[in-house]
Write a structure and sequence with these properties.
Layout: H1 3-6, H2 14-19, E1 29-33, E2 40-46, H3 63-66, H4 89-94, H5 104-107, H6 111-115, E3 125-126
Parallel strand pairs: 2-3
Antiparallel strand pairs: 1-2
Length: about 150
Amino acid sequence: MAFWEDKTLEQMSPVEWEALCDGCGRCCLIKLEDEDTGTLITSDVRCKLLDGDTCACTNYPRRKEIVPDCIKLTPQNVREIPWIPTTCAYRRLAEGKGLAWWHPLVSGDPQTVVDVGVSVKGRTFLETEIDPEEWEEHAVVWPEWEPPESL
């Protein structure tokens, strides 16, 4: 049963909510803000808790304790946070778009996120290995790329 088609984000159980995450890791990339314009810039530097090969948080239950500025997504804030990727299931559902064909809940295979090029797997640098003064040099546009709506 496609619960995401029958329920609003607010109606989902915690298990259903968590199942919406496609595991791409895009939300765990360091964002920079242009001081002059306020423009948000995404880097290829990942949070110290994100495993660069599995795109999983290495300490999900304690992430807020370890990384105080980690943002727990909620039905309310997914509608307000400007940097949530356009490919994100939470954002897509909040905008009434439905899940993408490559999402694991639709495709049945978590590998489709990698195959289609949405995943950050193997494309990032760990924040503890890059001097924060150099993060600006790691600005990238590929996290904003969206695959076609269908094959």
